[in-house]
Design goal:
Blueprint lengths: L5 H10 L6 E6 L3 E6 L7 H4 L7 E4 L4 E5 L4 H12 L10 H8 L5 H16 L3 H20 L7 H15 L1 H13 L3 H12 L10 E2 L2 E2 L10 H18 L4 H45 L1 H18 L1 H16 L5 H22 L3 H16 L3 H11 L1 H19 L25 H26 L22 E4 L4 E4 L7 H4 L5 E7 L3 E3 L4 E6 L5 E5 L5 E6 L11 E3 L6 E2 L4 E5 L1 H6 L6 E5 L6 E3 L4 E2 L4 E5 L1
Antiparallel strand pairs: 1-2, 2-4, 3-4, 5-6, 7-20, 8-9, 8-19, 9-17, 10-16, 11-12, 11-15, 12-13, 13-17, 14-16, 18-20
Length: about 625
Amino acid sequence: MAYKYEETVRGIVEKIGGIDNIAHATHCATRFRLKLKDMSKFDEKGIQNVKGVLGLRMMDQNEIQIICGTVVSTIYDEFQKITGFKGDGAIDDPVAAREDGVRKYTPKKITSIITEYLSGTVAPVIPIYLSCGLLLAVLSVATQFFGLSENSGTYTILNACSLAGLTFMPIALGWSACAKLGADPALGAMLGMTILYETVNGVGGLDFLGIPVYQTSYGGSFLPIILAAPFLSMVYKFFRDKIPQSVRYFALPLITMLISVPVTLIVIGPIGYVCGTGLAVVFTYLGEHVKLLAITIWSFTTPLGIITGFDKAIYALNMEHLNAVGFDNLFLPGGLAGNSAIGGAALAAMFLSKDKDVESTGASSGITALIGITEPALYGICLRFRTPLLGAMSGAAIGGLFAGIVNLKQYVYAGPGLSTCVTYLSSKPGGYFNFMMCFATVAVSAIAGFAVTLILSKKNKTQYGEVPSENSLEAGTTVTVSATAKGNVVPMEQIEDETFATGVLGKCIGIEPTEGKVYAPCNGTISYVADTLHAIGVTIDDGTEILIHIGIDTVKMNGEGFSSKVKAGQKVSRGEALLKMDIDKIHQAGYKATVVTVITDPEKDVEVIGNGTIQPGQDLLKIS
């Protein structure tokens, strides 16, 4: 049987070290998520060259997330059929566990762990938030425009369905959080049930062994269970290894709950409630007093938040505030502006490109971003070419500012996008105007993202693959070559190698790099990659050869400290990353890391137009 994505599946399996190296496999809306047993078998560079793979995110605890776009569910299904792997396997790696116990927890690492925990916990329960929110929106439409009575049985049942999901959310969050943390998810759900039980939830005058229990209402809450689940997980894992196997089945749940429930009610729950209240005060202040500034900044950073996963953490923390006040006029409207601007920037890349693959990716990912799924556009266009990322961020800021001016409100939680625009409709006064402003915000943001990307791309349209057919450049055509590295320009005569300094190989220029990456100087084809990775050749379409030599005498390093992203025969675009180098390792070996760009054709006139500190993509040489 032929499979549509068999090449993608087999490529992924090969690059992760084979099917036997998989401990766990699942997927979300756009990512194929794998936990590997042995990361040393994983080819991080190679997997990004597999057909159908748009990008890669490296997570903690041997987890990788392969970005495949909206076709990921089909890829996952074919993966199971082709390999026979059923997924849902639990990882059990004592070596990794010991290594985790001695990890260095830097501020950056702690932030990453918290963000991953929040986003990983919330993601599985988003369908609950989404269905509840959309049900409330449907009821609003039905009562306003179709005459549905709020006293009817139909309204009562559907309203109960939507409110039940929000009220009993701590149960679902408890399950999801413990599943994320590796504890028994049923115990997490039980903890959620306990704090919602009628004799505990919001009841005053309680005590546990004489210790007073603070009166707290947990219905629809978020932070209390999010803080309590890690404690339950620690208790569970601690006693799991201490209790004999013969009695573990019934003793472990009992001991876990005997410790976790009172600690949650006496300490963790009230702390979570107070923190949630504090966040609500902060969010309310931002929304009332500095809304325009706050929503503009948030919208501007939304594309970066999506890349890091930080946006999901913010949305998660904002859910409790949204449920309490009944709307959000800051984060979700800002996210709507951000997603729409990303779509506009991707469509601009499609408009500018003459490359069929870029056109196709830009069109499809731009439309899906407007709908609400942004990762194909972010990884397939924005991060690939960088200029659209700046266009998207700028367009998002413009759209976010517009949303703030019209005081756009989203009344129930749903991922930002056209597919959830009904959540901006309300039976309250001004609800229909707010609904129309949702579409206006999408339009303003998308147009701004499109326009800013066009403007920023004026000087470098060729980055999107606007390349004439091979050898079609006419004689006398001027070609501008961009900087191959970030750093300081070194004139040819000052390069510390006589071969280059005297122009034996051709007119050249050097860059003393401050970053360990080498970039394509122009559109062309990789003609040569040295086995030792210290040199790469690029052929322009008129036949001109450009040699990029990385370091002085670094051929003696035999490839150590270098990793190539390209291979001979590969088409590249101006500004595309070609190679990574470890500058410190080069210096420690006693060599200079100077990146030399050589025009090897003696018939060409070469003019140096770059000097001082230079960035990749900035003009460096002019060839005529």
